[in-house]
Amino acid sequence: MVDLGRRNFMRAKQVTSAAPVRLPWVVEEAVFTAGCSQCGDCISACEENIIIKGDGGFPEVNFSLGECTFCQQCVVACEEPLFHSLETTPWQLEISIAASCITTKQVHCQICQDSCEPEAITFTYRHGSVPQPEISKADCTGCGACVAVCPESAIKLSTSSLGVNHE
Ligand code: SF4
Ligand code: SF4
Ligand code: SF4
Q1: Quick one: which ligand is closest to 93's CA?
Q2: Residue 73 placed within a domain
Q3: Do residues 75 and 86 touch, judged by C-beta distance below 8 A?
Q4: What integer pLDDT is reported at residue 17 of this predicted model?
Q5: Where does [4Fe-4S] cluster 1 bind (predicted)?
Q6: Does the annotation place 109 within a ligand binding site?
Q7: Distance 138 CA to ligand 2 centre (A)
Q8: What's the CA gap between 156 and 96, in Å, rounded?
Q9: Ligand 3 nearest atom to the CA of residue 145, by list position
Q10: What residues make up the domain containing 84?
Q11: Where in 16-128 does DSSP place strands (E)?
């Protein structure tokens, strides 16, 4: 007998959990999951080893393993038509820093800034407080280099509600 209560709970869980970050330059989620064969070639091709087999068997990027260098090898390795032109923006991810950032506890830390090549993270002195990080979303490429280095795992990159900007 089907347990409707459990099924509805599982559905609600799927709806509320964050959408995975797929590969750079990837097409819309529904098109991707319809066309990806789950062959794993992109996982083998990634020189940074940041692509994992996620829920449902589809590949996803895990920035806690490292950063994306935008080397394009995952796209080149894939035999399916699942990507936008490499001339376009690889992806548009929402970046956020949680309150668990240790600067909120008056501890000096600027590790994320040191890891950010595009210099999208700056530290601002505030009266009575140690410097706190601020991110220029316009300068953030979504490389994820700041994620793994944070001692509090306070930085998150997630799929933008605005979708991917392929201008
Ligand atoms: S672009 Fe390169 S570093 Fe980034 S996910 Fe693809 S293979 Fe990995
Ligand atoms: S190489 Fe392409 S088809 Fe194969 S798992 Fe990766 S995205 Fe899917
Ligand atoms: S994800 Fe953005 S803020 Fe973090 S290191 Fe990369 S460019 Fe900088």
Answers
A1: 3
A2: yes
A3: yes
A4: 58
A5: 36, 39, 42, 46
A6: no
A7: 30
A8: 5
A9: 5
A10: 20-159
A11: 51-53, 59-61, 93-97, 121-126
